[in-house]
Each structure stands twice: as structure tokens, then as C-alpha cells.
Inverse folding.
């Protein structure tokens, strides 16, 4: 039984070994000269103007989180849509399960909307 996992273990050892080897080689042979120009941020070949570190609005993070949450939900919808036609004749329960899932999604979206998470002001 454990012998089935040997190829996966070999793959992980190979991947981590290759990554470690690459890091060690670049550390050994890479340039070590750090000057003033190399430590400055790169802005399209122009000298940087103003402060380079600015605060990012929380709205970007909230919008990204909502996108990830609803994107993952769509990932769960795709396999259901693929097998729907095959299993709907056997049991109508598959339709009720997906309606429940979609209702939870819609309730979550309405909650975010009512709380103002989708407003950009």
C-alpha cells in the first residue's frame, strides 16, 4: 500500500532537491556588489519621484477576498453542472442540494451588499 506513494515521494524529493540546488548555485555564483543604484526601486527607467511606500486601501483587500470566495464557489458549481444530466434521472436530490448551495451563495452576496462591501467610495 505504501509502495503506491513511492513515485510521489521521489517527485517531492526531486523538486525540493532541484529548488535547493538552484538556490545554492545562484548564491555561490551570483554577483555580490550592492551599490546605491541597485538598492533603489526601479520605475520604468526613470528616477523615483516621491515616496515609494504608500498605504493600500483596505477596499482592495476586501474586494479581492470577495472575488476569491465567489470564484471558489463557481469552481464547485462546474463539476455539478457536468454530472447533472447523468444523475438527475436517478435522484432529484442533486437538484435540491445545488439549490441549497446557491441559496447560501445568494444570501452571502446579499449580506456583503447590504454591509456596503461592494461600494467603492
Amino acid at each position: 500500500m505504501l509502495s503506491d506513494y513511492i513515485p510521489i515521494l521521489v517527485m517531492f524529493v526531486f523538486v525540493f532537491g532541484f529548488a535547493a540546488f538552484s538556490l545554492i548555485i545562484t548564491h555561490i555564483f551570483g554577483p555580490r556588489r550592492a551599490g546605491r543604484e541597485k538598492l533603489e526601486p526601479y520605475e520604468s527607467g526613470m528616477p523615483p519621484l516621491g515616496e515609494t511606500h504608500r498605504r493600500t486601501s483596505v477596499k482592495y483587500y476586501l474586494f479581492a477576498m470577495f472575488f476569491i470566495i465567489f470564484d471558489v464557489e463557481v469552481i464547485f458549481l462546474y463539476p455539478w453542472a457536468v454530472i447533472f444530466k447523468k444523475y438527475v434521472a436517478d435522484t432529484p436530490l442533486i437538484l435540491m442540494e445545488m439549490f441549497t448551495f446557491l441559496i447560501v451563495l445568494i444570501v452571502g452576496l446579499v449580506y456583503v451588499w447590504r454591509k456596503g462591501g461592494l461600494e467603492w467610495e
Q: What stands out?
A: The longest helix spans residues 58-87. The helical segments are 6-29, 36-39, 58-87, 93-115. The mean pLDDT is 83. The chain has one domain: 2-115.
